[in-house]
Specification:
alpha+beta; about 25% helix; single chain; 17 strands
Length: about 290
């Protein structure tokens, strides 16, 4: 197995929305805001090469939306998914599987594109299976009012109509279950129904992909829950279990949304589990 970080593009979100009830005077120490109260956010996908299987975990928000849509997210930097795949030595047509932690647009928007003939939507990875789970699919395609703006039909229906949509089974497992893709999955329900977090062993280290359970290093303290979560008290329960497991077993946390930190380890302190050290992929694996 080999893994590669795939930077799909940076953007910005409101710091208050990202930290919920935590005061700005506290969260800005780790996630400084600009004059519009916006903080830096990454859309860091993960590419897993395992034998003949090439799995992309999440896809970023893609580029098919309107300028008005993207105007809300203040995209910055030079990253895009094709350049990042090329830098890793691959092309999107080689991807065999796209594993979607959940179906909010910033995680799955890049899975579907507007085709070059401008006749409709089509899969952006034409040879790939798209993996979600049935409970989350039902949640996303019949959304509650709180999440409706995050579940976009143009990201979901073409995936289903393509015939490339597949469901992970065993979502009744509370925390960890194996998957047909060769890694374990942690199911969490606080952010959205049945979000799936990959976890696997790599070069003697346990890597846990954080998605929206812990978006950045600033979100490690237990009460630091993003305002977008549908069930924040459940998020806190899930975080507490995970953080204790992570510090006891020396997990390496891989961040999808931290624009300035790729991975970290944790330590116990008198205030609870906290950040220990941060790392880049190159520092750990090259």
């Amino acid at each position: 197995m080999k893994i590669y970080p795939i930077e799909t593009g940076n953007f910005k979100l409101d710091g208050g929305a990202m930290f919920g009830v935590v005061p700005k005077t506290i969260w800005q120490r780790t996630n400084p805001a600009d004059e519009l109260n916006l903080i830096d956010i990454a859309a860091r996908s993960l590419l897993i090469e395992d034998g003949d299987r090439l799995t992309l975990v999440d896809t970023g928000m893609g580029n098919k939306q309107s300028d008005k849509f993207f105007g809300y997210y203040y995209r910055w930097g030079n990253y895009d998914i094709d350049s990042s795949l090329k830098n890793a030595g691959f092309h999107r047509d080689e991807i065999t599987d796209v594993f979607l932690t959940h179906l909010h647009f910033d995680h799955c928007g890049g899975a579907i594109q507007w085709n070059k003939d401008r006749t409709g939507y089509e899969p952006a990875f034409k040879h790939a299976k798209f993996w979600t789970n049935e409970k989350h699919w039902k949640w996303a395609t019949d959304p509650n009012p709180r999440e409706k703006a995050s579940f976009l039909k143009e990201n979901l229906i073409p995936m289903q109509e393509s015939g490339q949509l597949k469901f992970i089974g065993r979502t009744d497992e509370k925390y960890l279950a194996d998957s047909p893709l060769g890694f374990d999955i942690r199911f969490v329900d606080g952010h959205t129904e049945k979000q799936m977090l990959p976890q696997f062993e790599y070069k003697g280290k346990t890597i846990a992909y954080m998605a929206d359970l812990i978006p950045t290093v600033g979100h490690i303290p237990l009460p630091y829950v993003i305002g977008y979560d549908t069930r924040p008290l459940i998020t806190m329960e899930e975080k507490e279990l995970f953080l204790n497991q992570a510090v006891d077993n020396n997990y390496y946390l891989l961040f999808e949304h931290d624009a300035h930190n790729q991975l970290c380890t944790l330590k116990r302190t008198e205030k609870g589990v906290r950040l220990d050290r941060t790392f880049t992929f190159n520092e750990l694996f090259n």
